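Why does this matter for the project? Reviewers at the last site visit asked to see concrete outputs rather than summary tables. In response, this paragraph embeds two records directly. Each consists of the residue sequence and, immediately after it, the corresponding structure tokens. Nothing has been edited or filtered.
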Amino acid sequence: MPRLLLLLPAAGYANRDFLAAAARLDIELITCADYCPQLAPGWGLPPLMSVPFHRPDAALRRVLRALKQPVDAVLAVDDHGQALAAKLRVALGLSGNPPDAVAALTDKLRFRQLQQALGLPHPAFVAMDAQGLDAAAVVGFPRVVKARRLNASRGVIRVDDREQLVRALHRVRQIQSRAQREADHLLVEDFIPGAEVALDGVLHDGVLSVLAVFDKPDPLDGPYFEETLFVTPSRQPAAIQQALADAVTKLCAAADVAEGMIHAEARIHDTGVYLLEIAPRGIGGLCGRVLVSTLGMTSAEIVLRHAVGLPLPVQMHDAAAGVMMIPIPVAGIFMGVDGLDAARAVPAISAIEITANPGQLVAPPPDGAAYLGFIFSRAATPQQAEAALRAAHAALTVHIQPLVKP
């Protein structure tokens, strides 16, 4: 039985998917979390230890002291633990992407510098000191202000003039500070218009196997960039999808990322495929469940299979599938959702899961990084899968009590 050390984030949507997949695959898990073990949220597998994922050097020492058994692999469920997982693999002599390779993908500035060095299409960009925030250094609009290391569209704002730029720089710096990040540069780059797509795949010895290419049918033009719909298979031409896969392969090789599942996002522009980012993990949230309709298993199971050398899936189902991350209409206190029965009755809807809890504070991007829930569809065509998601969402009424400022 293979043994695997799994890093569980406190708010990880896919935690249960990983635990369930490990049980199906007969993989022994040792879990490490970034929350108090006494407050474990009932997953049935209390963590061996609790360490601060955001301080990987300190956490590394504590994990190595507590770990009494050899493990065959180390994985992080989401972005939060990737740096620690990479350091643990090195310390334990395990294969996988090294720490600097993981950092090259998760740092937006380093990612852009890699694109520039490789001659890949990329937006013009400038790194701005988080202290000085010198707006005078930026010429030309529209631009996008980004926190350098945050994910899930946090700290990402489009600006169309210098006044908006000054406000956005200040706001993104505040968001970055609340995320407990050290003072860091902010990235300001050209806004690239065009349709947005995503690619999920698995790297093995640097060779990319594409699992799915997703369309994002909703326009993502700003000023904020809340992701909603992912639909597969993509309706983009085969040549565009191949150009996307080629760009992903080339950049991962340059970053020395050669193993494991990756999730890439890109804009399709008249002048080429512009990679926005690549994450060394599968698609986020519960969205990895959408692959059950096309590949017969979740992305969590695919990640675990690759880590312990089990066979990976082949295309199993001739079906289209989609997922909607239910949009958050306003910041405030989540009170609940009405209309679930009607939404679940929409043809081609396969599941709806509300993940926010009543009383929870929620906020859309650029401030928030959580979701209200997920709607899943399976249909004969991507058009039908998309239409089902929109119809189910229209049947829902989300109740949020807006916050009142004193």
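We now turn to the second protein, recorded in exactly the same manner.
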Amino acid sequence: MATQTLTLGKALNAGLRKALENDPKVVIMGEDVGKLGGVFRITDGLQKDFGDQRVIDTPLAESGIIGTAVGLAIRGFRPICEIQFDGFVFPAYDQIVTQVAKLHYRSQGKVRIPMVIRIPYGGGIGAVEHHSESPEAYFAHTAGLKVVTCASPQDAYVMIQQAVASDDPIVFFEPKRRYWEKGPVESDVPLSQAYPLHSARVARPGTDATVLAYGPMVRTCLDAATAAAEDGRELEVIDLRTLSPLDLTAVHESVRRTGRAVVVHEAPGNLGLGSEIAARITEECFYSLEAPVLRVTGFDTPYPASRVEEEYLPDLDRVLDAVDRAFGW
């Protein structure tokens, strides 16, 4: 089995390359994705190898990128749109929620929109305003869209290919602060045998409390679990991976065993994914819970200036504090 060590960003690049090789109808479009290779170099080298008709540098117009991709998808192409930064997606929000999300339903299933919208998201890179948002709840709330996020190089490599192969529109969130983190990638696993796209995964088994996270916070929670183990607590960390549809089968099974649950995400807590997850756990596992489902999130403020962003982002100490509070009930 071919295994190599790649950064998460390089794994995405390899997955996109594989998708372009496997299907001539796959095209990549976005601002600076071609000659420059994207601001994070995720598409580096792809225009050189596949040409500017398949890796397309677009004008600085997110609405135009998505609108063009809708037409391509209707005509049988599989466009991959890159939104350069999370905070730049909002000019395209109208296209995404009124066209991309609705056309299959509106056409009574006659029209498919097989497109992927890639969005680097989250903080932790010292960026300026509009470059560190976590807008995943907007899209997970919208019926007709599927929303996923990767947390490791292996998942990045496989999940981007699975998203491109899907006949449904998928919003693919990429944790930009994790682009440079390395991990093993098995590159010869057929997609038909790979871990399912819309399934959660146990990232670390444990017995004492369940910690749920996705995207950039998975690493933070794994670090918290390592620290907790030094004090004799075994935390089970679950990487949700799919935000719409949510896969909570493994979550419910875990919470029934541990009796405690903590949900962690960077986005503000008010009406975030943690609210929905907490409600679902309470509905299904009420008699197993030893404490309320607790949330560790960003604060209900606009994302702050980079010099104070570490005060805003959930960290190891805040996760461990929530676990302590769960045990205090």
